[in-house]
Fold this sequence. Notes:
The chain is an alpha/beta fold. The protein has helices at about 1-15, 25-45, 50-75, 80-110, 115-140, 140-165, 165-190, 250-255, 260-265, 280-285, 300-310, 330-335, 370-380, 400-415, and strands spanning about 195, 200, 205-210, 215-220, 225-230, 235-240, 270-275, 295, 325-330, 340-350, 380-395, 425-430, 435-440. The protein folds into 2 domains: about 1-190, no CATH class; about 225-440, 3-Layer(aba) Sandwich (Rossmann fold).
Amino acid sequence: MATLLLELSLTRIFSVVFYYHMAFLAISIALFGLGVGGVFSYVVANWKGPLYTKLGRLSSLNAFLVLVSLAVILAQGETPTNWSLALIYFTTALPFFASGAIVSLAVSENMERIDRVYFYDLLGAAGGCLLLVPLLNQFGGPCTVISAAICFAVAGAIWHSMAGSVRGRAGSVALALLLVAVLTYNQRHPIIDVRYAKGHRLQWETWSKWNSISRIGVQAYKAGGGMIYIDADASTGIADFDFDHLTGEDRHKLLEEGMALPYVVRPGAKTLVIGPGGGWDVSRALASGSHDIDAVEINPIIATTVMREKFPGQSRGLYLRPDVHVHVEDGRSFVRRSTEKYQAIQATLVDTWASTAAGAFALSENNLYTTDAFHDYLSHLTDDGVVCFTRWGFDPPRESLRLVSLGMAALSQLGETQPWRHVIVGRGGSVKGWARSIPC
Length: 440
């Protein structure tokens, strides 16, 4: 249980400290450590002393190794070198090395009851997976790793108890209690936390919180507005507009830039915004005269904690307005089960660049961008409705071409013989290099 909990929590930490594709590094480290530890178990088997005493000592030692590996990961500065990455790899492999030796020894000692041993091994692994989500939601990434260390210390107490060692059991229990105290203190006063991520220091954060799918950091501005950062990388601005007194500059930002295209075509539309983040697309719809907006945000920290509880003043209570209906749900699932018809469905740069506990995802793996998904979007439009997706624009174009091809394929499935007659492609920003491509 502790081993799986450690492995999966490391995928979240690697996604924050490095990049989402580095989440797979945790799986490589775990397999490497477990394999070498299994080989090392032959050496441990020849040590003097009862088997359960050896297992108890290894488990208690492993609690320290978990803390050492966490400290090494979080101690990296702005520009990790190849040597520091190698240090992270082999240091983080140490807890899995000890786990591999422990599991191998436990299995080899009970070969005649291998069915029971394997059953409880799988049961513990499942328990670690199930514990991951509530622990990340409650304590965050670093403290979840400390929780794995506590589990190793508790395992040490159990092994010492089976060996009949009162001193060993007392020491392991004391270690577990000490780690609980460290976790409790760190939760209130974060001393073991992410300070550097993606090559820069996180000194601009006003507030941060973890859950099972992300680490959200907020940079709140004194004058209102701010930025929401997802895994210290992807970001979404907090919209700060007084809709009763919009200035000319406000109207330009909201209604005369590329992402406002659907509201220029359909002003005052009944709107569905997928992935609204800090509320810019919602603000565009409101500025165009919309009074019925469904905003579907998958991350509860953004939709509820940041925008409606901790920092509602930064957006002037945007998500508390009666004409804005916020739903904490996956956008695709919401569309699939909805019975509503919309004049405008909008999704702007809906990617977090953050890994899930299972690994990483890219545009090709996001189920918002599939032919079936576009079929669902088009099926939920009114007769005069528009679907508008914004992606990064490149020269030559890449993501925008794929969006257009998905939309045309979905239109063909719906019986449209000339799908190209229903497509608009806009571009915001520079013609060269990075920009935003807006197919509708």
